[in-house]
Amino acid sequence: MITTCLWFQGDLDAALARYESLFDDFELSSLTRMGADEPAMLASWRMNGTEFRAISQPADFQFNESISLSVTCADQAETDRLWYGLIAGGGEESMCGWLKDPYGLSWQITPTRLYELLSDPNPARAAAAQKAMLSQHRIVVSELEAAADQAN
User: Fold this and answer.
1) Cα–Cα separations (whole angstroms), residue 79 to 22, 86, 111, 113, 151
2) Which of 23, 78, 122, 143 is the most exposed place for a label (fewest CB within 10 A)?
3) Does the predicted TM-score (pTM) go above 0.70?
4) What is the DSSP pairing of strand 106-111 with strand 68-73?
5) Tens of pLDDT, residues 35-93
């Protein structure tokens, strides 16, 4: 088994609380503190079907866009809930469904419908959907569908 291990900068408690609030299947399996009133230093959890571990110590290590967590969403409502929940309180929007949460971790929040439109058997529809997606920050399915429909 491969488990993703993330290095947080002393803000692991806040990150875990946020992720738990956003992912219904979030399950914390272990949490280590140096003392009862100390911040979390190590953690293991599962969310959205994936196992994670984390270290939380100030260091020169920083998250960057070369690694991201990609979440495929069932619909626009889930896309919006995760998008706005992850950028709240200091996150940053990027292009094409990418964002950074307040801890600097990059995410791709992508509705399933985007993949369907990009693989449309009609190349003109797929290209129109892709062109629309490239202009978006948060993916908005209705705009992608409208662009694809206009290509007919």
Assistant:
1) 11, 11, 6, 11, 25
2) 122
3) yes
4) parallel
5) 888 999 999 999 999 999 999 998 888 888 899 999 999 999 999 999 999 999 999 99
Q: Which helix or strand (DSSP H or E) is residue 65 part of? A: none
CB-based contact 139:77 (threshold 8 Å): no
Count of residues in the chain: 152
- Asked if 61 and 7 count as a contact pair (C-beta separation under 8 A), the reply is yes
Name residue, tokens 């919006």. 80
- How far apart CA 27 and CA 19 sit, in angstroms, is 10
pLDDT in tens, 7-17: 999 899 999 99
Q: What is the CATH number of domain 63-152?
A: 3.10.180.10
For position 36, what pLDDT does the model report? 84
Under CATH, to which class is 1-61 assigned? alpha beta
CA nearest neighbour of 118 among 128, 107, 126: 126
Secondary structure element (H or E) that encloses residue 30, with its range = strand 27-33
